[in-house]
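ERR on first pass: missing label on line 2. Operator R.T. fixed the label and resubmitted. Corrected input:
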Amino acid sequence: MLNAAFMQRALLAALLIGVTAPAVGLYLVQRRQAIMGDGIGHVALTGVSLGFLLNTSPVWMATLVASAGAVVMELIRERGRTRGDIALAMLFYGGMAGGALIIKLSPDGSMANLTSYLWGSILTVSTADIATVGVLAALVTAITFGLRRQLFAVCQDEEFARVTGLPVRLLNLLLAVTAAVTVTVAMRVVGLLLVSALMVVPVAAAQQVTRSFAATQALAVGIGVAVSLTGTTASYYQDLPPGPAIVVLAMVVFGLIGVLAVPLARRRHRTGGGGAEPAACDLVLPGPREDTGSGQGPARGAALAE
Amino acid sequence: MTSPPASAGTGTAPAVRLLGGAASLGGRPVLRGVDLTVRPGEVVSLLGANGSGKSTTIRAVMGSVPLQRGTLELFGTPYGRFRAWHRVGYVPQRTSAASGVPASVREVVSTGRLSRHGLRPFRRRDREAVDRALDAVGMLDRAGDGVGNLSGGQQQRVLIARAMVGEPDLLVMDEPMAGVDLASQQVLADTLEREVRRGAAVLLVLHELGPLEPLIDRAVVLRDGCVAHDGPPPPAAGQHALPGHDHVHPHGGDHDRRARTTAPGLLP
Ligand SMILES: Nc1ncnc2c1ncn2[C@@H]1O[C@H](COP(=O)(O)OP(=O)(O)OP(=O)(O)O)[C@@H](O)[C@H]1O
Ligand SMILES: [Mg+2]
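pass 2 clean. output:
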């Protein structure tokens, strides 16, 4: 199958998407902004339509418009929760409606063109597209992995991060733009409606069995790559839309890990990751209660602090 | 951010100098002219009832709440020009150390080193500092565990380690002892004493002085956003630390619950 040139391009695109979407999604989930990718996806739709209308590359136009939308969302978030949800909702609806209207205005654009961006299509990934996707994906990867400690700190505890002297605002805006770029990287294969799922589901799947951020990042990216490549291949052979195939696979992985999580955790405990803690109490209480009066906590805590 | 100017006068300029600080939250005046000075090597405790403005004062000093009036200097530098953040360690009033994605204790404490290494890579001496800070709060053996799986008091100790890991000259802590058991408080008091002897200044909000009492040089009592007392710690506050005092702590729910179920609950 690899001799089909478009299949090679599609698999390459799938690989890049499998890496970048979970890598960015990780920070959004950490900040409990999992649906931000959805908002950006809707706004990107307007960008795609504008690309058709102005006869420029829909991918670059979508990147531009989605980045602007992401920056607006970030500024709304920064200014506090007051009516933030309404403003975000406006952005969602505006992006969707704007996209559908503008495509009607453009001479060679039709709803059918838009559909391939909504649900993804491996058949339409052109050589020019793959170059664009490659450049953008490299950028996203450099930021999400290179600035891991800084972005982690900002998403973990913004108030604390500010006191470490990090340029918190700049990093927040950078993350917003990076998320927007990721959405446009992924939209050709996965489709705008499901991009967000690939940002969130691998992270959700991974964090069922991880205890650290670094491990979650590695596992989420691993899952992302695996489901993107498998889903794209399956969609080639079975003639399925690639986006939904990839997302359903990711959900299956999520479920499998969920089922395996409990026995895994139990085994990790038995083989003693940290210290082997006995499951039963082995303290023998001295005599009929005299040492424990009404004062609680402190005496027990002493053992803990040692 | 990464290359702080060689600040003038560690020994002379106060670590914190807030003069006539006023701030509003949600349109309501919360601070109405607070004066607060903390000198190097000094331990100042902020006291006051719930809602008296202690956290707001702390957050104003850290720059999270903008001042409407008044001036703020850190180490003799006006706040707007202050860049030497590696000299400051901060423990915010606890919410939770956990976030949407698992993070290990070590990862959370490591963020406190960002003020030192900034955009440069995390190196061996950063790693060693993290180990030392975790050891100081008695959490080194849990370094690889997820913070979300810790008890409230343990999370609080992690946040204290995060503040101390940058070896700051000013430690600002909002109710650092909330939910921390007495023995660990004693361990932290000893650690804090070492920091103070090193010359660090400490500004902290407390509801009970507890094991920290001998360390405290000065108490500033707030009432309705105004300073009601600035001087030696009021003796009444010390009584709370006496054994047998009934511990009803607004932020210590986690620990209290745990203590009750592990200690007397085991007896028939
Ligand atoms: N986000 C906010 N919006 C509006 N008012 C606020 C906000 N946060 C705090 N306040 C008000 O500011 C006043 C001071 O709050 P602050 O948190 O400084 O109190 P505190 O002294 O730290 O109390 P505690 O002992 O409970 O921690 C309170 O009356 C509170 O109602
Ligand atoms: Mg408070």
